[in-house]
Amino acid sequence: xxxxxxxxxxNVEKLQDYNMIEVRDNRENEVVxxxxxxxxxxxxxxxxxxKITNSxxxxx
Length: 60
Prior knowledge:
Blueprint: H1 3-12, E1 18-20, E2 31-36, E3 39-44, E4 57-59
Parallel strand pairs: 1-2
Antiparallel strand pairs: 2-3, 3-4
């Protein structure tokens, strides 16, 4: 998946409260998508903006 395809999915699913490759601290209750080493890393944050344990997954 490339960035354009990821953005298309976000728009089709009408997702809100996400951070996609933004250079900033995580915010509370959001989905974070990062592209590292040719993989998409996806995880969610809690009400304190901390990554929820075992929430991380990978997309190709």
